[in-house]
Structure formats: C-alpha cells, structure tokens
Amino acid sequence: MLTFVADWLNILLRWAHLVVGITWIGTSFYFIALDLSLRAREKMSPGVFGTAWQVHGGGFYHVEKFTVAPPALPEDLQWFKWDAYLTWVTGFGLLITQYYVNASIYLVDRAVLPMTGGEAVLISILSLAAGWFAYDRLCRSPIGQNTPVLALIVFVGIVAAAWMFGEIYSGRGALIHVGALVGTIMAFNVFMIIVPNQRKIVASLVAGEAPDPKYGKIGKQRSVHNNYLTLPVLLMMVSNHYPMLTNHPQNWLLVALILLIGAMVRHFINRHEAGDHFNQIAWTLPVAAVGLMVAIVMTAPRTDPAHAGMQVADADVMGIVERHCVACHASQPSHEGFEEAPKGVVLETVADLGRYAPLVDAQAVKSDAMPLGNESGMTDDERRQLGAWIAAR
Questions:
Q1: How many CB atoms lie within 10 A of CB 196?
Q2: What is the residue-wise DSSP string for 263-281?
Q3: Same domain assignment for residues 219 and 268
Q4: How many folded domains does the chain comprise?
Q5: Distance between CA atoms of residues 350 and 5, nearest Å
Q6: Is 49 helix (H, G, I), strand (E, B) or coil?
Q7: What would the pLDDT profile of 183-240 be if each residue is shown by its tens digit?
Q8: Which of the 8 DSSP states describes residue 39?
Q9: pLDDT tens-digit series, residues 128-154
Q10: Is residue 206 domain-shared with residue 243, that is, in the same domain?
Q11: What is the DSSP letter of 50?
Q12: Which domain holds residue 360?
C-alpha cells in the first residue's frame, strides 16, 4: 500500500511539475521575445523605452515597456512568480519521492562511491545550496558585469559540478542533480533576485520616489540567464530515461555539449526575435549541429570484442538474470521498492528475456544503468555473458 501511495504522489507531483514548468518556460520565452521586439516609435508615452505591436488569437495587442517604471502603478498590476516557485517546489518534491526516499537504489552506486542513502541525500542538499551561493556571489562580483566572462565561468562551473556528481552518484543520480542544480539557480533567481528587486521598485513608486534603475538591470540579467539555461535543464530532467546519457563514462562532457547546443539554439531564436539578419546569427546553427553530432558519436553503441566467439547457454544466462534482475522484473517482485515490474518488463523465462533483449542490452550490457545502483553486484563478466547471449540471437 505504501508503494501504491508513493506512486500516486509521484504521478501527481510529476503532472504538476510539467504544468507549472511549461507555464514558467512559456512566460520566460514570451517576455524575452517581447523585450527583443520592442521598438522606439515617434509617439510614445513619457518614460517609455519601446513598444511592440502583436497579433494573437484574433486580436491585436499594443505593449509598452518603461525604461525604469511608470510614474504611477495601476491597481491590477500582474506578477509573474508563482509558476517559477511552484516549478521548483514540485521538482524538489519529485527529487524527494523518487530519489531521496529510494536513495540507496537511485542515487548510490557503490562501485562509484560507497555511502549510505542518508549521506547521499545530505550531499545533495548541501551541493544544491552551495551551487546557488557560488553562482549568486559570482554574479554580484565585478565579473558579473562582464557578460562573456561570466557566461564562460558559469558554463565551466556547471560542467565541473557534472563531473563532481559523477564521482559521487550513480549515472542517473548524477545527471538529475545537474538538472536540479540548474533548476535551483533559475528558480532562486526569481525568488531571491528578480521579484525582490521588482518589489523595491514598486516600494519606491508608492513612496513617491524615483526608483533606482540598477534593480531592473540586475533582474533583467538574471532573467536572461534563466532563458539561456532553459533548454539544457529540460534535457537534464528527462535524462534518467536514457542510459546512453546518464551512464556514459564521460557524461560530464555530454553535459557540456548539451549546454552548448541549448545555448546556441536559444541565442539564434532570441536574436531572430530581435530582428537580426540571418547572416548575423547563422553561425549558431552549425555550432549546435557539430555539438549534436559529437554527442551522437560519443553515445553510439559499440560492439564489445569480448563477445566474439563467446557461447552462453540459456541456463547460464537465466542464472545471471535470476541473480540480478528478477527481484524487480517479476510478475510479483520480491524487491521492497516495487509492487509490480518496472515498465511491465518481466524477465522470468528465456522467452521473456528474448522479448525484451534490446532493452536489457541497452540497460545492462551497453551501460550499467541496471541493476539500479548495482545493488546485486553484477560483474563486468556477467554483463559480457549477457551481451554475448543477446548478440547470438
């Protein structure tokens, strides 16, 4: 019953996370595009930086943006913050229900670093907090005024964090933490910087004072950071479904490529929205394409020469499966973490193993994603035998 309740909690949190995440990302994309489409026109209200004419849903919209703030605020001022807050809250809830509660399964890989589930959770919380603190201090430092240098250091910092997580957690635990770290930075940008700065501007207006333009400038900087990090963080958050990413021996390098690809695509879209000529921004697409090709080549399946000539009997391969797979992948799993076989994959007979051979090959032969956390201690030789049996079919 406990597993049943946990599954429903996981489903509802995941559903909510998707809904609020889509809304937050859509809002981010819209306002960056709006900012970049603003134009100075002959007739504008005093203090207006630029305006934009837009058409959508059968109607026309005329939007103004003030250089700092209008002289007076309307009563129906709208704030865009809860989608960001709830995206982080639901995401952290998923991290708890999926990874913290089952830390010994999903986070710990004793072949990487022997530790308890509690230690893995403590490291997770501390690393997310430390990542935000380091990023925030960097942005507040003089380096924060130099956009190219700041972007490079943030890029290197995220890749370094990916390498560090890979030295601590299982493959899927490492990449989900890269996503959680970037997501924390993005949400805390809204919670700790963008919204508080906007409140200071509002307080100045209410008090009849001229707002300090630095607050808007700082908020815009963090908003742009969030915009460029959006595409990479989305892929990180779904990476646990793809062992070719999570369990690649150089998954930190894949993180670097994902950051590069996402940033190039986002930059192309942003500058296109700003009205830049295609020739000025076309360079971003080949860079993204090269990054993608390198990632594809890195993750391409390779034939293990150790398989060549190896003969493995059905009885031997089923012995391996019974030792390492059937505790979870059975019609009635004996593993305490599962009430039914994950994804409905049952491996109780030779026919079952043949049916799901491609999945087994991807998860347990070409990567060490399975068994989860290698709880049962599956050896490289056993993986080779399993691979040879599959290759011979």
A1: 13
A2: HHHHHHHHHHHTT--HHHH
A3: yes
A4: 2
A5: 33
A6: strand
A7: 999 999 999 999 999 899 888 887 888 888 899 899 999 999 999 999 999 999 988 8
A8: B
A9: 999 999 999 999 999 999 999 999 999
A10: yes
A11: E
A12: 305-391
